[in-house]
Structure formats: structure tokens, C-alpha cells
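// run 5 | inverse folding | seed 20
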């Protein structure tokens, strides 16, 4: 199963990202309810591996944070990001 690890966004952050994707003309639009920050793509993984990873991720704890609103970078996965906003 193709999978990824992501962070859910708060309502305010989702609104910010939804506004940004309306302005940017790259990628494909995502419904605001489905917006998230992808940390890593895992590609195709067996279900038993994903279940074990899920249990490990549930055990993690980290403080909440706010995504920076004043920076934006876009890059193909094969190149370093290029800043497109201040």
C-alpha cells in the first residue's frame, strides 16, 4: 500500500495553506479538509510494516507548532527548494 507520514493542520493553518494554493499555480489543488504537511513518502509498504510503524508513531510526543506564514519554497523532489516568497 502506498503510504506517507504527515502532520494534521489546525483550522487556521488549513485556511492559510488553502489561500496559498489558490495563488500558486503548481501541483494539484487539494480540498481544504484534506490539507496536511507530508513529512515522508513511504512508497509501497506491506500492511504489517505499516501497522508496526503506526504503533511507533502513536508513542511519539512532540509540542505543537505553527507553520511559518512568511516563507514558501517549491522544488521538485530531486532538487533543493527555491524560495518563492519572502
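// decoded
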Amino acid at each position: 500500500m502506498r503510504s506517507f507520514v504527515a502532520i494534521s493542520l489546525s483550522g487556521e493553518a488549513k485556511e492559510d495553506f488553502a489561500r496559498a494554493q489558490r495563488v500558486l499555480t503548481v501541483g494539484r489543488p487539494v480540498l481544504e479538509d484534506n490539507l496536511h504537511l507530508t513529512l515522508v513518502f513511504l512508497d509501497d509498504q506491506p500492511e504489517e510494516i505499516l501497522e508496526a510503524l503506526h504503533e511507533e508513531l502513536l508513542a511519539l510526543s512532540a509540542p505543537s507548532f505553527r507553520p511559518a506564514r512568511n516563507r514558501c519554497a517549491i522544488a521538485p523532489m530531486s532538487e533543493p527548494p527555491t524560495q518563492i516568497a519572502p
